[in-house]
Design goal:
membrane, transmembrane helix, transmembrane, elongated, 66% helix, 2% strand, 15 helices, two-stranded antiparallel ribbon, mainly alpha
C-alpha cells in the first residue's frame, strides 16, 4: 500500500523527493520495540508486532488480572448492591474498550494522516521553495511524536492521576470490589492495587500519548500554514484548496469514542448513585461536544491567517479591477462616465476582464477549513456513549432528539 501511495504523488526534483520521503516515514508508532521482541522471543516472532496481539496482551493485563483477583476474592460476580467487578462499566470502558482502541488505532491513524500530507504535494499546494521547509516540519513531527521525553512525561502524569484516583477510592463509603474494611479503616483490595499500579496508569498513559500525538499533528499543520501555499480563492472546495483538511478530525473518531465511553461510564455510575441530576444531562452533552469540536478545530486555526490574507487581497485587487472594468463599460454604453467624466488616466488602458465572479467567490470563501457537516462521525462518536449512559434514566428517542439538535447546530 505504501509503495502504491508513493506512485500517486508526482515527483518534481530533489526538494520534492525529500518531502515525499519524509511523508512516507511519517508516523507516531515505531516498530523498534516489536522488532526487538520478535528477535528475542521465537514464538512471538510474528504476533509481537501485530496490533491485535498487543491489544489482547494489554487488555489481559489491565482487565484480566483484576478479574482473576476479584474472582478469587468473591467480588467478581457479587450481588449488585456490592458493585461487582463484572458490572463495573468504568472498568469495561477504560480497561477493555479504551485500551484496545488506543492500541489498535496506531497504524490506521498513521496511514490516514499520511494521506492528508500527500495531498499537499499532489494538489500541489506547496511552492517549490516551500518543499524543504515542509520536509523539515514533517521530520520534526516524527521526532516529537516518538520522543522518549514526551513518553516519560506521559507516564509520570499517568501515575500521578492514578495515585489521585486511589486517594479518592479510600474516601468512598460504599461496598465494592475496590475497597474493603470498615468505615473507620478503609483499605484497597488486591484488585484495586493492581488497577492503581498497572491498569489505570496504562489507560492514562495511552490516552495522554494520543493527546500528545494530536498536539504534534497540530504543530505540524501550523508549520505548514507558515510556508508559501498555492491557494486560490475560486477553488471549488470553498476554502482556497484546503477544505480537505476539515475532514482530518474524523481520523480520531475512535479516540473520541474511547474517551466518551469512559465519561459515559462515569455518568451511568453517577445516575445509579443519584449523584447526577437528569436536567443537567443535556448541558453535559452540549459541553462535551463543544470541547471535542474545539479540540480538533484548533489545529485548523493555523490556516486562518493565509486564507484571510488571500480573501482580503482578492477583494481589494478585484475591487480595483472592477472599478476600471465597469467605468470602461459605462463609457462604451453612455459615451462618458457619469462621475469624474475626465478620466485620462485609464481611458487608454486595455480592457480588463470582469472580476465579479472572483469577488463573489472571495466573499463566500471560508477562512477556516472546518465544517460541522464534514465531521458528523466525530460528533456521533462523542455523543453515542453519553446517550447510552442517559438511556438508563431517559427515553432513548428523547435523547436522540437532543443529540441530533446538537449535531446539526
Amino acid at each position: 500500500m505504501m509503495n502504491q501511495a508513493r506512485h500517486e504523488v508526482p515527483r518534481g526534483g530533489g526538494q520534492t523527493d525529500a518531502l515525499i520521503e519524509a511523508i512516507e516515514r511519517f508516523g507516531f508508532s515505531s516498530d523498534q520495540a516489536g522488532d526487538h521482541l520478535r528477535g528475542q522471543v521465537r514464538w512471538l516472532r510474528y504476533r509481537a508486532g501485530t496490533a491485535p496481539w498487543r491489544a489482547a496482551v494489554l487488555v489481559a493485563l489491565a482487565w484480566g488480572v483484576p478479574l482473576l483477583l476479584t474472582a478469587s476474592a468473591g467480588t467478581a460476580a457479587a450481588p449488585l448492591a456490592h458493585h461487582p467487578f463484572l458490572l463495573d462499566w468504568g472498568a469495561w470502558a477504560r480497561f477493555v474498550l479504551a485500551i484496545a482502541i488506543f492500541t489498535l488505532m496506531d497504524r490506521q491513524v498513521d496511514e490516514q494522516l499520511k494521506r492528508y500530507l500527500r495531498h499537499f504535494v499532489a494538489a500541489p499546494l506547496l511552492t517549490p521553495q516551500a518543499m524543504a521547509a515542509a520536509a523539515e516540519a514533517v521530520a520534526r513531527a516524527i521526532r516529537r511524536g516518538r520522543s522518549p521525553t514526551a513518553a516519560t512525561a506521559c507516564a509520570l502524569i499517568a501515575f500521578g492521576l492514578s495515585a489521585a484516583g486511589a486517594a479518592g477510592l479510600l474516601r468512598r463509603t460504599d461496598v465494592s470490589w475496590l475497597v474493603t474494611g470498615t468505615e473507620d479503616a478503609r483499605r484497597l483490595t488486591a484488585a484495586a492495587w493492581w488497577c492503581v499500579l498497572v491498569s489505570s496508569p496504562l489507560f492514562w498513559f495511552l490516552l495522554l500519548r494520543w493527546l500528545w500525538r494530536h498536539v504534534v499533528w497540530g504543530l505540524l499543520l501550523r508549520s505548514i500554514a507558515r510556508v508559501d501555499l498555492r491557494l486560490v480563492v475560486t477553488h471549488p472546495d470553498g476554502a482556497g484548496g484546503l477544505a480537505f483538511l476539515g475532514e482530518y478530525p474524523n481520523v480520531f473518531a475512535a479516540l473520541v469514542f474511547a474517551m466518551s465511553a469512559s465519561l459515559g461510564a462515569a455518568v451511568a455510575r453517577a445516575f445509579q448513585q443519584d449523584a447526577f441530576e437528569v436536567h443537567a444531562y443535556s448541558y453535559l452533552m452540549a459541553g462535551w461536544l463543544a470541547c471535542i469540536l474545539l479540540l480538533f478545530a484548533l489545529p485548523l486555526a493555523a490556516f486562518v491567517r493565509p486564507l484571510r490574507a488571500l480573501k482580503e487581497k482578492t477583494l481589494l485587487t478585484g475591487a480595483a479591477q472592477a472599478t476600471n472594468h465597469f467605468r470602461r463599460e459605462e463609457r462604451e454604453i453612455l459615451g462618458r462616465n457619469l462621475t469624474t467624466p475626465d478620466d485620462p488616466g485609464v481611458t487608454g488602458e486595455p480592457a480588463q476582464p470582469n472580476p465579479s465572479a472572483l469577488i463573489a467567490a472571495a466573499k463566500k470563501m471560508s477562512i477556516v477549513p472546518y465544517s460541522r457537516t464534514t465531521i458528523v462521525p466525530l460528533g456521533v462518536a462523542a455523543l453515542l456513549p453519553l446517550i447510552a449512559a442517559g438511556a438508563t434514566q431517559l427515553p432513548f428517542q428523547e435523547l436522540w432528539k437532543v443529540a441530533k439538535r446538537l449535531l446539526l447546530l
